[in-house]
Amino acid sequence: MIQQSSHATDLVPRICLILASLNRVIYFICDTILFVRSVGLASGINKEKWRMWAARHYYYSLLLSLVRDLYEISLQMEQVAHDRSKKEKSPSQDPLVYSVADEETEWLQSFLLLLFQSLKKHPPLLLDTVKNFCDILNPLDQLGIYKSNPGIIGLGGLVSSIAGIITVAYPQMKLKTR
């Protein structure tokens, strides 16, 4: 993953992916230490300390992955907006389009429409963002950043697992590095 990340052409995704991968490695080391303790190979390991370290690095990994997703979403939205402005300049478009939206909510409606169109054009990005968002619920709870109930965390885990299964079953749905 780190080697693939270092070949990304855009600086923001490259840094996010490299740092996320490094944090994931630290998470796996912490998790392995917890496993060693749980099977009785080492008894002098402070379980709570290592559990918090594991949760912290998993959180950092997911947070960096979400930053990358948001950056990619902003690029997609920029592209959709650019494509839309090209279409609006064409003479076949009626210049007198009536907008029912109130001026105060028009920016929000425009933003949400642009977001929807961007994610519709790029389903792997939507899937990766949903998966990372659902995954981050658990470490947020473990670290006490945002307490949630077990049902919400379980539902997030279920949705994340389904998203992961989709990327395995349909490799074209896996988010590619640019």
Task: Provide an overview of this structure.
- The chain is an all-alpha fold.
- The chain has helices at residues 2-6, 11-38, 47-88, 103-121, 123-142, 150-169.
- α3 (47-88) packs across α4 and α5 (123-142) packs antiparallel against α6.
**Rg on CA atoms, Å:** 21 Å
How many strands, which pairing sense, and closed or not: the largest β-sheet? none
The proportion of residues forming helix, as a percent range, comes to over 70%
What amount of the residues lies in strands? under 5%
Q: Order of SSEs, N→C? A: HHHHHH
Span from first to last CA? 13 Å
Helical stretch count? 6
pLDDT < 50 runs, ≥5 residues: none
Question: How does the SSE layout of this entry go?
Answer:
Layout: H1 2-6, H2 11-38, H3 47-88, H4 103-121, H5 123-142, H6 150-169
Characteristic terms for this protein:
178 residues, mainly alpha, 6 helices, 0% strand
Would you summarize the structure shown here?
This protein is an all-alpha fold and 178 residues long.
